[in-house]
Amino acid sequence: MPDADPVPTPSLRNAEDFRWAGVELRPYKQENSAPFKAISRQVLFSDPLLAGELRYFEIEPGGHSTLERHEHMHAVMILRGAGRVLVGAAIHDVKPHDLITVPPWTWHQFRATQREKLGFLCLVNAERDRPQLPTAEELNALRAHPKVARFLGGEP
Amino acid sequence: MPDADPVPTPSLRNAEDFRWAGVELRPYKQENSAPFKAISRQVLFSDPLLAGELRYFEIEPGGHSTLERHEHMHAVMILRGAGRVLVGAAIHDVKPHDLITVPPWTWHQFRATQREKLGFLCLVNAERDRPQLPTAEELNALRAHPKVARFLGGEP
After folding, report:
1. ipTM of this model?
2. Are the beta carbons of A123 and B125 separated by less than 8 Å?
3. Which of A8, A62, A71, A89 is 20 to 30 Å from A152 by CA-CA measure?
């Protein structure tokens, strides 16, 4: 059967407290597909005419995204709250409107603080590869940096 | 002569009051290339590895972007202030985090209010066509809608 005609996106979609009209609040990933905690996903722009996709992720206090890497790049703008971000072996404190660039094949993880949510926009190519999780060996290599070990352990 | 090696983007670029570390504040367009008023441009993400570009535009109170159309799509998120947006024959009041979609070949213009700036993110394909300005005939057709005529005249 042919696909149904796609419904065009309305020219205005109002925001209210980091939810958007007509945008579904989705789980970050399928449960048990990878380690993560307390994070949701809203796809704000995804269209056959757009080469990029813009998503909004929100991490609850104490939550975090998956530690992963992939060939595609992440272009991130923090929108709300406070947290810390691992990019390679660097750890950054982030606040609203800060920009984070994750180059190809770079380990990365986003963590909210214990007190505040962390919400951020993430721009990716519409066509992209699947993320890789670290092997036990790669995780050990990352943890060899004491600061990274503390970050991954969730210490503030 | 070969190009110099590109300088990699740092993994963190801090924001301060809608300016970003290492990001140049540019004119919106070349002067006299098209009608516009009181608007600046910052390119936040533009990279050979990214199929999209993310730009931040800021319009001073009373200012506006060019009335134009093109084949490529705009995916916009309002970041600060208040204003109104023309998309086709629709006029929308906008506030922070609202999403605007401009489909291909659709006339559009962004206007700040008389009292407040309007700042917004705009995602576009890195490869895109050049905007077209309306002919006198097209402008008359747009102005045939009384609401659009008032909008283009800058009436609040």
Report:
1. 0.93
2. no
3. A71
**What pLDDT, in 10s, does the model give residues A13-22?**
999 999 999 9
Of B54, B88, B96, the CB nearest to A123: B54
Q: Which tokens go with A100?
A: 């984070």
- In this structure, is the dihedral angle defined by the CA atoms of residues A77, A82, A83 and A89, taken in order, positive or negative? positive
Q: How far is CA B104 from the centre of its chain?
A: 15
The answer, for B82 touching chain A at a CB cutoff of 8 Å, is no
> How many CA atoms within 13 Å lie on the side-chain side of A14?
5
Q: Does A46 touch chain B (CB under 8 A)?
A: no
Q: What is the SS3 assignment for B13-79?
A: ECEECCEECCCCCEECCCCCCCCCEEEEEEEEECCCCCCEEEEEEEEEEEEECCCEECCCCEEEEEE
Question: How far apart are alpha carbons A96 and A80 in whole angstroms?
Answer: 5
DSSP state string for A61-114: EEEE---BB-SS-EEEEEEEE-EEEEETTEEEEE-TT-EEEE-TT--EEEEE-S
pLDDT tens per residue across span A61-116: 999 999 999 999 999 999 999 999 999 999 999 999 999 999 999 999 999 999 99
Read off the pLDDT of residues B51-106 as tens digits, 9 standing for 90 and up. 999 999 999 999 999 999 999 999 999 999 999 999 999 999 999 999 999 999 99
Residue with tokens 């982030």: A94
Residues on chain A touching B104 (C-beta within 8 angstroms)? 49
CA separation, residue A70 to residues A86, A132, A134, B49, B121 (Å): 15, 6, 11, 13, 26
Q: How far out from the chain centre does Cα B156 lie?
A: 19
Considering only CB atoms, which chain B residues are within 8 Å of A72? 49
Chain B residue at shortest CA distance from A49: B73
